Amino acid sequence: MKLISWNLNGIRAVAKKGLNELIYQMNPDIIGFQETKAQDDQVKEALADLKGYNLYSNSAEKKGYSGTAILSKSKPLNVIYGIGIEEFDNEGRVLTLEFDNFYFTTVYVPNSGGQLLRLDYRVSWDKEFLSFLKELELKKPVFACGDLNVAHQEIDLKNPKSNYNKSAGYMQEEIDGINNFINAGFKDTFRHYNPETIKYSWWSYRFNSRARNIGWRIDYFLASEKLMETIKNTFILNEILGSDHCPVGIEI
Length: 252
Fold this sequence. Notes:
Elements: E1 2-7, H1 11-15, H2 19-26, E2 30-34, H3 40-46, E3 54-58, E4 68-72, E5 78-81, H4 86-89, E6 94-98, E7 103-108, H5 119-137, E8 142-147, H6 160-163, H7 172-183, E9 186-188, H8 189-193, E10 202-203, E11 215-216, E12 219-224, E13 233-236, E14 248-251
Parallel strand pairs: 1-2, 7-8
Antiparallel strand pairs: 1-14, 2-4, 3-4, 5-6, 6-7, 8-12, 9-12, 10-11, 13-14
Helix pairs in contact: 5-7
């Protein structure tokens, strides 16, 4: 199976750039989307011509903001919307499908913001989302993928020194957050199998950053330890355009 995660930064915008064709080209068995920036009916409309997939979406109450969706070739046993905490569920940031042997969760972690105004909210979010994943794990192992809005180590962003403790996505509190996931048994699959590979998944639209490869690796595929032996390949698809993020994924 091929499992993919992609922050679209607007599903309707990417639909106009050939999203269906890109999905067929990548041929995932399951793909999780973040930042759909659309209501459920608009997500359905954007993918109306796509064949061979079951669609599930979790949109924010605020229109044109946040939102997640999952396409799956096989129907899940169950669908879970959010993490069960209203304060964190009104932005449509988490969507989970249950399958026979694992849960597949896609997540769009809150950005701490340019002035770091949401840093405290984000720290609380990380704690509650980790608790949610550990609850799932009591039943069966978990793949959790998405835009975690944090670069974990210096290797994960082009300019670590100038961004450390100054920029959203590379604050120590955010780094501590992802450390907590890893310490709780969720492996960063790409870094586990590619300890020294420099590859990014997001580039600012400013300063011609993508062409110059001035980027950050903030999109992840986390996996319960029990699932690591099933992973045959990890990848970051830098060549796939359409968003300021590129798809990341695994083969199991």
